[in-house]
Amino acid sequence: MLSIYLAFLEVSFKRQITYRIANWAGLFTNAFFLFFKVALFEAIYVGNEVVGGLNSTSAMAYAGLAQVLVMVIPQWGNIGVGEEIRSGQVAIDMCRPVNYYFLTMSKRLGISLYYVLMRAMPLAALGIFVGILIPFKNLAHIPLFIISVVMGSWIANSYHFLVETSAFWIENARGLKTLSTGIIYFLSGIILPINFFPVWAQNISRFLPFEYTINVPIQIYLGTGSNIFELMFFQLIWCLVMSAQCIWVLSKGENQLTVHGG
Prior knowledge:
Elements: H1 2-17, H2 20-44, E1 50-51, E2 54-55, H3 56-69, H4 81-87, H5 89-94, H6 100-130, H7 142-164, H8 174-187, H9 199-205, H10 215-222, H11 228-253
């Protein structure tokens, strides 16, 4: 069964890499926003040595890493589930001898792998070259960082899956999708580090899945997390919780599915 999911992952990766012009255009756009976000953080630190427990060097690296990971750990966009439900394509996928949720996640991980190679690594190299990113403070954290990125991607994609399955019950999920995107975009830490939030907001954020997508991998990279293994443990918990929720909602949604014409 695992080989089937790996095959879909491979196909998804190959399909993504065929759009070469879009690849270069996307890389240019990500590079632009890399420098744009760093410039904004530089303005924040004018006259300030430390903000939210981060010095200017760590804050610039945070902004750079957030942009490096933004496509690997998706914060916006459709993953295709909502459209497949509306078109009826989901019925065909559900007839396959595989779980639709894990099938979708294997495809999404294939896309994330593509973004690691074609976006994240070139952007990281550029960031290190111009002095935005700083090297790992502890090389032993590299495997932990990679695992954390995978779990962050799993949580983010599961969140999008969960939102888009609302199409089983409502005719058009675009409004809900827009709202949900705003929530994850703000609370994941991609706009501002969670450390910049008021203490009460940080306490609430710890009980939500969003900061475990982008913020935690960045903390591991920068070495600013108070307890790396505790952060990764909660990431793992959210992976399991989100997966269970998605599978449960999918099972309920199957009873609501109506495919016209057959």
